[in-house]
Amino acid sequence: MTAQTPPTPPFRDPQLPFAKRIDDLLARLTLDEKVGFLHQYAPAVERLGVAAFRTGQEALHGVAWMGPATVFPQAVGLGATWNEELVRRVGDAVSKEVRAMRARDDRVGLNVWAPTVNLLRHPLWGRNEEGYSEDPKLTSAIATAYTRGLRGDHPTYWRTAPVLKHWLAHNNETGRDVTSSSVRPRVLHEYDLRAFRETVEAGAVAGVMPAYNLVNGRPNHVSPYLREHLRTWTDEDLLVCSDAGAPSNLVDSEHYFDTHEEATAASLLAGVDSFTDHGTDSSTIVARLQGALEQGLLTEADLDAAVRRQLSVRFRLGEFDPAHDPHTGTEDFDTLAHRALAQEAAEQAVVLLKNDGDLLPLAHDTRLAVVGLLADECKLDWYSGTLIHRSTPLECLYERFGAERVEFAEGVDRVRLKTSQGAYLHVPLADVPDEVRGAEGALDPALLAGRTDLPPLTTDPTGTELALVDWGEGVVTLRAPDGRYLSVAEDGCVRASADQPGGWVVQETFRLEPHENGHLLLHIGTGRHVSVAADGVKVAEEGGEVSGEGAEVFELVVAERGEDAVTRVAGAADVVLVVAGNDPHINGRETEDRTTLRLPAHQQRLLRAARAANPNTVLALVSAYPYAVDPSDLPAVLWTAHGGQAAGTALARVLAGDVSPAGRLSQTWYAADTDLPDLLDYDVIGSRQTYLYFEGTPLFPFGHGLSYASFTYGNLTARVELGAVHVSFTVTNTGDVTADEVAQLYTSAVNPSVPRPLSELAAHRRVTLAPGETAELSFEVPLSAFEFWDVKRGGRRLESGLYDLFVGASSEDIRLRTTLTLAGEPAAPRDLLQRGLDAADFDEQSGGEIVDRTKAAGEAVTPVGGGTAELVYRHCDFAAGVTEVTVEVAGEGFVELSLDGGPTLAQLALPAPASGPYDYTTLGAGIVAEGVHDVHIGLRGPLRLAHVGFSG
Length: 952
Prior knowledge:
The structure is a single chain. This protein is α+β, with helices and mostly antiparallel strands. Strands 13, 16, 17, 20, 21, 22, 23 and 24 form an 8-stranded antiparallel β-sheet that branches. Strand 40 and strand 41 form a beta hairpin.
């Protein structure tokens, strides 16, 4: 007899719907196998032929961490292109490289953690480089384009599965795992949720990653918003992946739960499906889940819901249908098309901020002095791949204008470090091959070790001249003549060993601390001072004294100041180009916010020297964030983000006029630090943040960017039809070069009943026009875009009235305008008898913050630091009259109520502190009120107010 072939299990049958196949596979898994699936590194189930699976592959602007790959401009640079079609092609290229790399290295994952859709609310946020814009509409447009490229066009099988980062209201690295963002309902719905919602609703998102921070007093990893909002926006199963180590933070740093079993169960029930914790070791998470099951905190059905969502992503990625997966044979890697696209993206990201007297583009015979710390650099950031190709502005300007017409001065301070014994630090010669950090790829690049194959620094009578750069805030790097940076490896020795500063903990940065008649050299990465020992230069042992084998006192011997080198080359040039900016691993990066908008003092010195020597000085800022620079005495200023492998090529081509710049600022550039709110103030409405509400004068406004051409706008029409405003207008290139223009449409409510944006981006389009060419642009803006979140009714409302439409080249460069009347719903006062007042639904407040009503759901308001807070609720209807007020409160202190700013009508005191912050009690008092009034609530002391009710 011939043995029969076993029947194909339903989960292997490509003719069945995914849902039925997932049901079948889920039913075959044991409880222990389901538990194992919930860690980032899900093990294989060999008895079913199910492979291991990893969530998470960084791919923010190219495949990151896994070795060489095409490196596109930083996300903030892609945002500055204002070009969805271009960004979709970038996402398409990145996803193809993911597939091609996975074919030869199965460590490369298909569940990509990108893009970042956190809004760039505050320019001092350390991770500004990762976002697209301060505006939710532009952010969602660019993010949707990138996710569509990452997903691919096949109707069934996804090339990669994008996960949006970082849910929610996450714009600070300072205390990022313990700080809470106070986000009132209007800001939540009109601002922070919006970028996520519109991107998810577009249909190319596989999931989200909660952020480290808390929102309204509750950690994002146990947020009810995942269930109440995120999962209602799509019928697709969304995979929620925790951020690295965040599940443990719930107990270890946030102290939100007493046990890890409670915390893990609460996260799973809130909607977290995959736990990224303890690296590749799943045992800790598995033990916590098993403990939660044993304690009755979870059921197998709870696990099934999470496993189902993970399996849904895996089926969409074609894992179970290799013969039908159209992406299996993808080989597109470092292709000519990808190289060209990287250059195109870098060119489109360049923003021309100022160009007085048309100094740019440069004439072909210009004698050019190129100076600055970024002039001969192609910097990478934490989420970059390893460069295959590299271009710097200097190299490309040599090529474009001829080396004989270009002079260069980097502007570093050239120094030697003299010891207390009279010797100098010496970099020994080393005949070893160069190495590029991360070239071999790493699942966790934070674990990459420093080089120990090079000899440590020593001392000798003459020493080695080092290039010193002060990157601001006292942080310096020191570079040897061969281009390698001084670094410290695990053995504590100081070597010239790094190709660039980098790593999770940067080992190439130091501080020069004045001490007696010299300086101590503090190594920032270890927190220890540099010492000189018999076996070489190393960091001192912990607690080492400034003597003997302890910290060395150095005299800084300056051979040349950077500004002197700049002055030497600048005077003889026709034009000076100063290339300034940041190193993405220093002062403003993940884990580290900036403290100021100012350009570091070292680079200010270079800029002043260049301008003093030559009035034709062009400033090119290459940075991950805005700076507050005074452009008044500079004829031309440009900005671009770190542009990836083609950064230098792109900048050179724009300067030479091969390309007309058309990048636009995707966030406001403020003139001074005093224009900024506190970094932890997330109330964009109350503190008038971003171009939406900012009432000051920006250095450069949102949407700003100049061109080598000129454009006129005309023929504006607008009509309301079928639930949308239909807008059209023409744009004409009146210049003499082909160029792109970014036409922008803004709306503004006239005389709104509540504070509304001064102007708000409704639509935009980047178009290419030849000289004399005219394009007619048409937009359809849904009436929902004119709505706001009405706290009086707990939902969105279109307010009847007049609305201005502005058309122009930036939020402030308005060329056309018209006004429409929109018919919406009439305003109504708050119905106090039916709904009362939820504390967080205030119209205005001072001194308070929103916190969690309970650990599971709801909001309350408390005075900051247990002090006092004032809450105002406008247009409250007491109808024919009320005789009693009740408050739901916890803590200690008292609540005061008054109407229209008048005398106190009621004071309700908590008799004694309750046992915990969630132990609410209801207090009542008699009042007499009728008609419509503004209700003022005063909070006194460390109490939480959840709700105010009225009756009688």
